[in-house]
Amino acid sequence: MQIVATSNLPVQSVAEQLGYDRRRVFSRAFRAAFSVPPGNDRTAQQSDRTS
User: pLDDT tens digits for 1-51?
Assistant: First the structure.
């Protein structure tokens, strides 16, 4: 979650860094762990920093 929230890397790049071959598999795992898709979490984290 920290990498997604604090970097500007595409979700695909984050997935690859974490050992996922496919973005979709990473997104499902992320959603299962944190109850939000990775793109939504990034958007929320970035708007919190600008507020």
Answer: 888 888 889 999 999 999 999 999 999 999 999 999 988 766 666 555 555
**How far, in Å, CA of 34 to CA of 22, rounded?**
18
The CA-CA-CA angle for residues 29, 23, 43, to 5°, reads 80
Please enumerate in sequence order all residues whose Cβ is within 8 A of that of 6, keeping only pairs 6 or more positions apart, or say none. 45
pTM over 0.70: yes
In whole angstroms, give the CA distance from residue 3 to residue 21. Answer: 17
Can you tell me which residue has the tokens 């990473």? 26
